[in-house]
Design brief:
With 556 residues, this protein is mainly α. The protein has three domains: 2-158, no CATH class; 185-247 and 278-315 and 426-555, no CATH class; 321-418, no CATH class. 82% of the residues lie in helices and 0% in strands. α3 (45-87) runs antiparallel to α17 (404-471) and α16 (385-399) packs antiparallel against α17 (404-471).
Length: 556
């Protein structure tokens, strides 16, 4: 609990209680009494507000703690790589923390470095003692262990360059362990999601029989079912975003590579076409809602295909990067620190998918362009998020006078390790894609089958009652056993079920891109595929149900 409180920026339980817990409780009780005395609501609604308020006091600090932990886990590999390359400048402890605190892209790690620098220098606590104190409250065990080891080194006066070079393997190994654990967490969430989806489908199937047993309108059932689907999908997406460290494939720079520009152009072309197509299909009113949405989404499938092609190109560039960065680092060292001359000497070599970017970088530097922007354009043209961050580390360390060969080796080794871990994540995403498609098939088929059964039984029972009324027989018995059967509007039922399929397909496709870290536009590929599956089942299942039940009725 103390770490949760610290993650929110409070020093102790007393400050947390005064500034957070008590105001939340006060607001909760005010809402409770307002609902109780001023509004006419069901008796349980005020107590739900009390429960939410009490739970918020514990849940919100936990979410903040996990948010900080995930942020550190996402950046720890960049931090240790940067610290290792900067150490080749023979920096002292103060310069090390000054450099790290200036790297705002490291998130909470840079904030922690800034805090250590402040406490050690302004409060005269010393770097070793400050590192130990800060480590106790770190949300990440990897970072806490690193700070403890760093404190011991600072106490004994060991050389920082030697320590940080040796720490590369230790921290990256811990990072790999945590990375693999996050993949296990993803598997758990996947199993939970599939289980909830199937359970929801069977719950819907059972609930759709309630109109026959209790006289409830079937529209009420499907409306609650839609709310349940939305809640479950939002919950799973939120859990993945909050608790699972991300590993983005493409950078988010304003400077776009040619592949990203191509995707944007096609997105701008296909989106209006999809909207117009959907509007035209609604006007024609020839198909059901889900079929209309599926046909309208087909132009966006083209965008998804181009996005997947761009992802594959970026993967190839990532694979070629370690060899390039090691080569340029060694060449710079041999040539005594001349970056432009080193790049010129490397022009005789072919770096494959990176050759064009390397040539453009050399030309910009040779023409006297701004060094920072020249390297930024190089990273932007690759389209890779990892290449961007590691190139920034390389550029800064080299131009500050670091050891080129050591810098190239550190970056190359750590980059290669990250690529190995990313392969595991992609394999998991591929398996998750198959599981989500299977879950969607089970959900859609079950719900449409249940709706078809309800429609058939409703007509059967209504017909039986009308027949009894005509002949004056046991209609009274039917009316006593069965409630008044509400008419089933299958067009509205189909609309709500179609919206369920759409929401579930969007959430599933988005989750796949959250897991594999690819371009968000690539989700249109899976979204369209899932909608096609859902539309096909929405057409096939009612036909098969009508045929099966028609034979049963005729046989009886």
């Amino acid at each position: 609990m103390q770490q949760w409180i610290y993650a929110m920026g409070f020093e102790d339980l007393r400050e947390f209680s005064i500034k957070f817990a008590l105001p939340v409780l006060a607001g909760t009780f005010i809402a409770y009494f307002l609902l109780l005395f001023l509004f006419t609501v069901p008796w349980y609604v005020p107590y739900i507000f009390l429960l939410i308020g009490a739970g918020f006091i514990f849940v919100y600090p936990l979410l903040q703690y996990e948010k900080k932990k995930v942020n550190i886990q996402e950046n720890i590999h960049l931090f240790i790589t940067y610290a290792g390359t900067i150490s080749t400048l023979d920096v002292n402890r103060s310069q090390l923390f000054t450099h790290v605190s200036a790297q705002k892209q490291f998130g909470y790690i840079s904030m922690t470095a800034e805090k250590i620098l402040y406490l050690a220098k302004e409060w005269n606590l010393g770097f070793a003692q400050t590192c130990r104190k800060v480590a106790r409250f770190s949300a990440s065990k990897i970072f806490a262990d690193f700070l403890d080891r760093l404190a011991a080194v600072l106490d004994f006066g060991e050389d920082l360059q030697v320590f940080l070079t040796e720490e590369q393997d230790a921290v990256m190994q811990d990072y790999a362990t945590e990375y693999k654990q996050s993949l296990e967490n993803i598997k758990t969430l996947q199993d939970v999601f599939i289980s909830i989806t199937i359970a929801l489908a069977f719950a819907m199937a059972s609930a759709l029989l309630l109109p026959l047993l209790m006289g409830i309108s079937i529209l009420v059932i499907v409306q609650y079912g839609l709310l349940a689907v939305i809640f479950v999908d939002l919950l799973l997406v939120t859990l993945i975003k909050v608790f699972i460290p991300s590993d983005q494939l493409a950078h988010k720079l304003k400077i776009k590579d040619e592949g990203s520009k191509k995707i944007q152009r096609w997105l701008y072309i296909m989106t209006p076409i999809s909207i117009v197509l959907f509007g035209g299909l609604l006007w024609l009113n020839a198909f059901t809602f889900i079929i209309n949405v599926t046909i309208a989404s087909l132009p966006l499938f083209v965008v998804g295909v181009f996005a997947i092609q761009e992802e594959n190109i970026i993967f190839k560039r990532d694979k070629a990067y370690p060899a390039f960065i090691r080569a340029i680092g060694g060449t710079i060292y041999v040539r005594g620190g001349g970056v432009t001359s080193a790049l010129g000497a490397m022009q005789v070599h072919d770096f494959g998918v990176l050759q064009e970017m390397t040539t453009n970088l050399y030309r910009r530097l040779r023409l006297g362009s701004d060094k920072v922007m020249a390297w930024t354009y190089f990273s932007a043209e690759t389209g890779s998020n990892l290449i961007y961050y590691f190139t920034e580390i390389f550029r800064e360390s080299i131009y500050l006078g670091g050891h080129g060969e050591k810098i190239g080796k550190i970056i190359s080794d750590n980059f290669t390790k990250l690529l190995s871990l990313r392969k595991l994540r992609l394999q998991l995403a591929s398996g998750m894609r198959g599981a989500l498609y299977g879950g969607l098939v089970g959900f859609v088929a079950t719900v449409y089958m249940a709706a078809a059964i309800t429609d058939v039984l409703s007509e059967l029972f209504s017909g039986a009652i009308l027949a009894d009324d005509e002949v004056g027989s046991a209609s009274a018995l039917f009316s006593q056993v069965l409630p008044e059967i509400q008419p089933v509007d299958m067009s509205m039922v189909g609309l709500y079920i179609g919206i369920m399929v759409l929401v579930h397909a969007i959430a599933s496709a988005y989750m796949i891109k959250l897991i594999d870290g690819g371009k968000k536009e690539a989700m249109f590929f899976d979204l369209t595929g899932m909608l096609v599956v859902g539309a096909f089942l929405s057409w096939l299942v009612p036909i098969m149900s009508a045929w099966a039940f028609g034979n049963i009725v005729m046989g009886s």
